[in-house]
Every structure is written in structure tokens, then in C-alpha cells.
């Protein structure tokens, strides 16, 4: 089998591109002689989800091939592979078994990744060669890095004279233009230019320019601007004088327009939008004029003068546009340098820098060294979603791929397969350009190997025929919108798709009634409300046809539109999944933590205090009404009094102690004090934590010492399970029950053995003592409480579990199924709510903790710094969308790319695509004048007046924007499988009969072309609105891996852990016990430090909570020992574990040195085991070293720590 060296697959939406990729990948590894051919393949895509899908498809296919009875789908693929590879089915089966086994044991070499991950791997491997720190961390947070850089630049005002002048002048310019004096936004925009790949080539021209250079250019620009205006006034005056000298009466010109035009230029009132006189026919002469002949004779000269004037105006306006952007542009290098400095200080590397680093390195290198090793490994390349590959990413990959496709190893050439669709290119702003794919699809080939094959995947396997037919006709029509030949060809000749065997489907286009644009903002608000109502009506209509909520998606172009829909549908009690419902900042628990942090930052913040009290009133205390609780708490103005008041509600905490902790420790304390029942459920358990009539959370209470003891006890019980609990937990952990369980979990004031929170099922494994009358009564009470909380409880004896665990598991399975039926019938399925009142919120808190930890570790952030960071970035963070929930999804069109849904609803389909985005344009400049080949200006229609070259740039930009807008629409309309609903607004044609540049006009023109449009009709249907699909496919089905049982001799197993945590086994007990006490004593300087030292030991995991009392007693015996009283006195200076460097360079470290007020030293060393004379010699060595330093050692002693304390004085 010979594959082409370079194959391009043009894959329209739903055409089975992933299937094609997987099939080609499988062909390579199945025909290879070795079982590890996958090691030589690099597959690149652009999202983690796409990586997961591709890996799953490949591994899943191999796994199915290896079975005796593969699925029908797998059989079809095997047959295709057998034909194309000329292998038999038996050979494919056998080879698949070998490959899948090899992949499992070498999964890291199964290289399918995002392009960013691959680039990161390359940079990490060659960090030293690229002059990067070996330990750098990757950051996605480029916006915050830029903000820090801008703040640092502005902070330099007053220090750097040149920079200060620039910033002050810029501020004054903005004020003169009646704009905000805050210049940080413009500088931030400049910083974004630095990191945006689209500007890399242009920015290189500015790298050698200083702020002084730009100030010089600015001065020259201002002078040129003024000179051009003066010259035009002179030209205009000369033209008027010329008319006068020739004795021409101004009234001879029709309405005097021509001389008036010249006069307006002379007066400095010229408007480029006014009529211009460029041709002879443009100058109108009155029919009654007596001097017509003279006028006609001088018109050519006048037009020539005007032509010079107009060209001057073009230059003037160009200079003005450049002047507007020159100040931020002059800070390019300053921002870039500051950004590099911050990254170096924080030891981070922005992901936006990855491609640029490699790009710079491979330029002008015939054989780029960073690819030398990789080039030998990778022989075959797959690039998915190629239209999203930026130009720089592609240029970086070319040398690596060229090396593989141009050479042979064992007679086999390397290959490249790229798959993409330029119609789905919607990421131009980050470097992904449809033009790159279009050029490759034509004659362009960047490789030395000329072999290239282009395949068109033109059959749609996703959608029903009605939707395919609609999209075919609709986008064929839109091809006429383009002037660019490539773009026109893309939609005219490459958007048509063949249908599959799914016949039917439904398309609905509806319009809101036309509104009068002069009626102001109130009418605009009404329009939004109409869209919301139309969306709700559509959902209800679809629901009546038998579709479930989870089969519907609402797509919006703007995030604000999605928010409006989410808010409205939530009010209408429609279950939702959207970026808003999943945002971490919207979770009640997270908002509570933020309010506590605000109070910790400033205890005079009454708003934060009130929110803090509100949460406690609603979810923790139940002694008084909410309002009264808040009112009383607000009256406690002093913090100490406030803490004492909280203590009366069993809430024990010290705000001052929390402030002393690191940021992460502070948040952990808040969580453990107030949110631990939620957090204990773990990530991903979407379980209702409902509130009873009193507002008390139906979980266990927190806030006091009682819950803390229960937590410690539960931890101890997890470490020391019974034999029966070990056996059952082993089975449960193996996922054989398909549900997630928790072990030794707190519910209310009880520790239950096992609980499945999602199905509210509790399992108890009872020992013999449960047969006593007293215990039976206690168990009954526990059962009643758990039942009231909504839990079902089942019990098994130790004997049942040990002797017949399979029967126990079967019983549990039955109860789980029963519970699932009960829960599904008793409560409606809804989206996970980010609130402690109706949702567990645990995932939100856990993700928030991750954010806090990362910020704390990377920036050593304090509370104030974190709160500033959170204010700017909170909206960026959300938890992953849970699969399978019966809820309507709301997402932006960009996020929907690559996905498919049975029903798609597209409201707000009336966007004005003629509006200019806020990006900038690079135009050619006069190098001899400015020393710059390019300048930056605003993207506006005024650019058309800057000359012919500028107009060409502007027109191309307009075409690119139109392509991007139509591509976005293409992505939206091709997500639907069965039904598509488009909600737009009716608009009327302009006077010339054409429609405004509005998306609504696309749909109106389509309806006109289809001969169904009626001016008064607002709804159009294509197909029949009925559900055609069968039962829903199961999402993310969990498949349990059976437990592999082995008979192992426990004596052959040694678990490495701290022996001190095994007290009670007697082995090395004294030695290990002494070592731990020794370490804790290093925290103790005086007797008053003992409590804090014990707490620190527990928090640090040195001892467990259960060991706390015995260690405390031992240390108290030491510090209060009658022979050691002077060693732990409050009035002495103490050094614990202090290193002393001796004259010869050797170091010693006495356990404890005490300097008394008499300037004498007491020496103390802690030992374990039996007395040894070498320890005495050690003390004497310490004494000699200390006395050489000029101190007198008055006392020295050894303490032997074991079951008893033994003090030996010397």
C-alpha cells in the first residue's frame, strides 16, 4: 500500500473528517512490520476535546477489531481497511490485538496532542539551547501579564524623563479630544499587538526604534500636516484668483458650486465627504453664462490644481490617522521589554510566545537543530482543523514535515495528511486564515516532494436531507456577496454537499416585526425581549414534538446575548447549561469565600460583613431568624467582640490568625470552617444539598470544634478499615457498580461506612457489637435521621461481605437501580446550580481552590492582590460542562465548532456585518520620510480616502471581514442534525431596492430566490416539524474494568511510609517516637510555644489528630522537667537547629542552644534509644566550637526520649 506523501482533505461540515483521519492512521499502523509504528506518528489538532475524540476512536477501533464479535460499525471499517491495505480480516484482528497491547504499555508514546502542547514539548526539550530557564512554567493568562506590564510602565512616570513626557502628552491629547484621560487602555491594546501573531512581521520594523525616535517622527508628522493644509489653502486661493483674472463671473457656474468648493478649501472647511470635481463633466456651467468658452478652456488647469489638493488631503488625513496611533505605537518596545522582564521575574512563559520562539530559531537555518532529534522519530503527520492553524504555526512545522516527506527509511517515505474546511475558519484574530488552506488546495506546495493529492469529502453524514438542502441553496446564494474570486469560488463550488440516507428534517426561519430605528433605546430593549420570547416559544414547540431539553442548543454570536437568554430562561424555569451557569464566580460558596476575604482585607467593609452573616444565617445557624441574626452581627463593631458573638453559635475562628496565613491556607481554613460538607463530596458529584424549612443545610453542621473531631475520626477510620470493609471497598473502587462511592463519609453527625451521594444510598457493614440491644436502638435512630435526609440505608454483616461479596454487590446494584427510579420520578432533572441552596457547589469550590493555589504559588499573592486579580478575571473561570444533563445548552457559535446537536436554535440573526471591528490596519509608509515601512491606523471607511493603495488594503480587509462573518454563519447553521430554527428581524429594502448590510437580508434574499417571500409573512417552514430520530444515544457510557484478583503474600509487600505513623506495632516504637518528638521540639523556644508546635505538627502531617494528646503530654514533661527548667525559661534567647560554621569549614548543628541573661550558653541535645558515650563526645565538640566563638558553656545535657524521659547532665 502506497500512501501519497502529501494529501489534503477538504472536509465540509459533517463529512466524516474524523473517520477519514482515523482510517488513514489505522492503515499506517496495521501494515507496518512493527507493532509500535504509532511511535512514528504525530497527530495534531486544536482542542483537548478533539484529542480525546481521536485517541478514543483509534483505541476503540483497535479494541473492537480485536474482539471475536466486533460491532457492526467496526466490521464496516475493517472491511474498508481490508480492501485498502490488502490485509485479511484475520490479519487485522491479530495485528490489532498486538498493537492495542503495545499502546497500553507505552501510552505516552501514543502522540496525539494539541499543537500548543506539541510546541511546548519542543520548547521544554530544548529550553537550554533556546536560552530559557529549565524550570519555566507556562501561563495562559497573557492578559494579566500585559496589565502588569502596562501598570509598571505608567508607574515609571516621573522617573524616566522621556517616557514621562510621552505619557503626559498622550493624556493631554486624549483630554483635548474629550476622551477619558486614562491612557492604560490604549497602551494595553499596543501590548496585544506584541503578542498577536498577525502583527509579528510588521512589528519587526519597530524593534530598533526608541521612544525618542518616535517623538522625532511625531514632530515631523505634525509639521507635514500643517504644511499640507497651508499648501492647499494656497492652491485654492491661486485657483480662485485664476478664475477672477480670467474675468469669469462665479455665478456662471451652476449654483456657484465650483467656486464655493474652492472657497471652502481656502477657509479650511473642506469635508472629504462633499462632492469632488475630478472630471470635466463634474463642473456644471449655467446655460445662460456668457463666458462659457473661457470657463471650458481653463477647467483642465483648475482640475489639475484640485487633483493636487485632493492628493494633499489624502496625505493629510493619512498623517492624522497615523498621529492618532503613534503614541501607543511608540511604546511597543517598552511594553515588549517590560513583558519579558515580568515573565523572567515570575519564571513563566506566555503560551502566546511559543510559536514566535521557534519561528525565530528556525529562520535562516538549513537544518533547524531543534528538529534534528524529532525528525528522526516522526515519519507520518496528521493535522486536523488545518484552517485554524496560524501562519506561524504552519511555517514552524514545514521544516520538520519536509524532512520526513523528502526522505525514505527502509523504502518508506514520510507522509502528511491535513484535514480542514476554509468555510469553518473563524479564528483570524489569532492567526488562523482560510487563505492558507485555499492556497494549499491550489498550486502551492511548500515541500521539496512535489507529490500532492487533494480530496473533497462532499457527503454530509450528520444532518437530515432538509437541512443539507437548505444549507446548499443558502450558501450557494451567499457566494454572490463576494468580490474576491477565491472566496466566491469557495462558496459557489465547494459548499454543496450530498445527502445521506436520513431523509426529512425541518428548517424554520422566523422574523420579528420590523422596528423603527428612530424610536430610541426603549424600542431596542423591546427587540431583545421579543427575541427572548421567540426563543422560549421555540423551545416549547420543540419540546412538544418529543425532543428532550438536552437535545437542544441555543447559539449566539455574542456572549451578552447568551447571558440575556440564560437569565430569561432561568426565570421561566427552563433547565440550562451555559457558560454563565458554570461560571465559578456565580457559585454561592465562592461568592461567600470572596466576601470573607474582603472582610479579612478590611474589617470595616460592612457590605462584606453583611454577606458573610447572610450566608451563616441561611446555611449554618438555626437559632434565630435570618434578618435578626444579620442585624445582631452588624452591631458587633469590634472584631474581637464579633468573634465572641460568633462563638455563641458554635463558630470558632480568629480572623487575625487567618490573616497571618498564606493566601491558600487562609482559603482552606474558610472552606474547612464553613464549606467542608460541600467540599467533602469531591469533584463532579452533582448532588443536591437541600435546605429544610429552617434554612439549615441538610448535611453535617460545620463551624465549631465538633465537626473537626468528626473529620479527624473519619480519616482515622479510613486508614484502619475492618477486613469486610477492605473487601467491599476494593470492589466499589473497581467501578464495578458504575457509581461513585465515598468511604467513611460524614452525613449530619454520623460517619457512614459507604455512601453513593448521587443515588442517596448508604451502605453499613456491621460487626458483632451491632447485635446488642443498645446498638440496635442507636442504629434505628441513625436510620430514621438518614431517611429524613432522603437517604436509603442498607446493612450487611461482616460475615456476609467476607463469605459472599458477589451476592452483596448484586443487592447493592438492585438498590441503586431502585434509587435511580425514585430520584428520577420525584424530582425534575435540572442544570447543576452554582449554589449551596440547590446544588452541591463542591466542584466550584474545588476549582476555586486550584485557582487560589496557582496564584499563591506563582505570585506569592496576598489577600489584597488576589482580590484585585479576581475582580479582573473572575468571569474567565468556569467548571467543565457536565455531559448527559437534561438541560438546554447555550453557547457561542465559536464554542459550538466541531459539535453537533439534534436541534439548533439561532436567535439574534440580524447582525449588521458592515460595522467595522475595532482592529487596526497596517499601511505602507514613506520610508525616506519616516524611516518606517509600515504605519498603524484605525480600520474605518476613511481609509478609502488615503489613496489607491490604501483603498486596496481596505477593500481586502472588508472582504476578509465578510468571509469571516459568513463562515461564522456557516458554522452555526451546519451544527443541526434534525431541526434548525433561525430567528431574525424583518427589514425593508433601501430606496435603491437593495437591502441593508444585515444578516437578516441574507435570509430574505434566500426566501425571495425560493419564491416564497411575502412582505407581511413572518414565519417560513421547510419540511415537517416532527421528531424523526429514535431513542437518544447514550452519552459517555461508563464501562467498568473488571477487578483482577491476585493471591499475594502480605509478607512480600512493604509499604513505604513514616514508621512513626505505625505506633502500636511496637517495632522501632521508641526510636521513631523520639524522632518525631525531636522534630516538634524544634518548633518550641519557650513553654508557651507547645500548643502552637503541636498544632503545626498535626497540620503538617507529622502526627495525626489521634496522636496529639500523647505527644503533647511528652513535650510538656520535657519543658516542665525540674532539671530542664532553665533551658525553657521565657527570659532567654534560644536557637533551635542552628548551623555553626567552624574555622576549618565544617558545620555542626546543636539541637538547642540557650543564651542566658548572664551571657552563658546552655547546650541541649535530644536522643533516642539507649545511652551511648559517643553522644557525650558530640556535646563536647559543640562546646569547643561555641567557646571558640567567645561564649562560656555553663551547662550541657542529653535528653533520651522514649516511653519515659531520661535527662543526663554533664
TrEMBL record:
UvrD-like helicase ATP-binding domain sequence ranges: 1-464
One of the GO BP terms on file: recombinational repair
Coiled-coil intervals: none
GO CC field: cytosol
Protein's recorded name: UvrD-like helicase ATP-binding domain-containing protein
PROSITE patterns with a match to the protein in the record: UVRD_HELICASE_ATP_BIND
Positions of ATP binding: 11-18
The keyword Nucleotide-binding is assigned to this record: yes
Species of provenance: Flavobacterium psychrotolerans
Keyword Mitochondrion found: no
Single annotated GO MF: ATP binding
Sorted UniProt keywords: ATP-binding, Helicase, Hydrolase, Nucleotide-binding
